[in-house]
Amino acid sequence: MAGIIEENPFVTDQELTRKLRVSIQTIRLDRMELGIPELRERLKVMAEQTYDQVRSLPIDEVIGEVIDLQLDRSGISIFEIKQEHVFSRNHVARGHHLFAQANSLAIAVINEEVALTATADIRFVRQVHLGEKVVAKAYVRSVSGERNKAKVEVFSYVGDDLVVHGHFIIFRSTSEGTVSEGGHEDENRH
Amino acid sequence: MAGIIEENPFVTDQELTRKLRVSIQTIRLDRMELGIPELRERLKVMAEQTYDQVRSLPIDEVIGEVIDLQLDRSGISIFEIKQEHVFSRNHVARGHHLFAQANSLAIAVINEEVALTATADIRFVRQVHLGEKVVAKAYVRSVSGERNKAKVEVFSYVGDDLVVHGHFIIFRSTSEGTVSEGGHEDENRH
DNA sequence: ACTACAATTAGTACCTGGTTCTAATACGAG
DNA sequence: CTCGTATTAGAACCAGGTACTAATTGTAGT
Q1: What mean pLDDT comes out for the span A76-91?
Q2: Which nucleotides of C are covered by protein (CB under 7 A)?
Q3: Please, what CATH class does the domain formed by B62-189 belong to?
Q4: Where along chain A do its domains lie?
């Protein structure tokens, strides 16, 4: 039963009686047993998720969890590879998620209201698999005030293994025009 | 009233009577008038949104829609920048989505059972905004059979404007070991 | 002041999708 | 056959409504 509800959380107890050919009381007893809340409660929880998501969208503007940040110096973030980040056929992480973590961290580490990625140079050293935790370390290598750009180097590890190595050039200006990729108001400045 | 509900969609008619100091019938008449559904309906709609989001995740194993593909030669994909792809504060596309489109296309264009990104070199030429359609064009520049790797160059445009330019090195082998990023069974080979 | 009309409020019946509780029935093991 | 568990039935109750009818209040026009 848990499977059916998981697959279609919108199912009512009534509908379950028809699928499982048991009485509605059995459905409800089992649901109690399994700790599965009633339909409305399920909907409410899902609704709260979307609502939180919408409200907290700025939070995942950084992909991965930033656990250390020294502005204009270095930063560390952790990103766990889950089902939604891998190719289904071989459970290997899709490159753009690893890129996203590194890119987000490179932007977060820059001490500026709006920071934009200008170029990125990424080397995928080895595959990352489902369930692995990727620790990305970013180091600001140079900050050239006149030209408003910073070079950031990022190393991503799984345990001791280097999995990704990247160089980013980040524009620090708030001006629009020649560079791409969004600005960023980060979590570390309040 | 519409404002209160918009701000807190989880409010019941009862709670509204207390906030607006009118009877519950007035609340309900007004809600009818404004075409605002009852609490449970609102929750259900929100729940369906989250559910759709989760369900459609596997679909984007190739980011963007591939509209032309000549294996080992070139490919074109289109990717529309939607709300979920941009920074909320300035509506500029997050870099990793543009990367993802280019990377996906670079892999798709390789005529191999499993293709993996080894390195990527990306330049973000200009910002891409909400609602813009990004057309990525990939060209296979070299295919060195002995070393099992291919160089792919990708140009992404919005209209006539070049927005992203990237060089990818893709491993064509099925062997594991030194390269990262998942294999890929693409839509074009069945 | 009286009337007409809209807005507001009250009240009742009914609905869905449940919970909670008590009680009856079926079913298999010892 | 009896004990214990699983299943089913049934009734009362609840939240958060819809749908409908009717009374009350307010207010503007003449």
Answers
A1: 82
A2: 8-11, 16-21
A3: alpha beta
A4: 2-58, 62-189
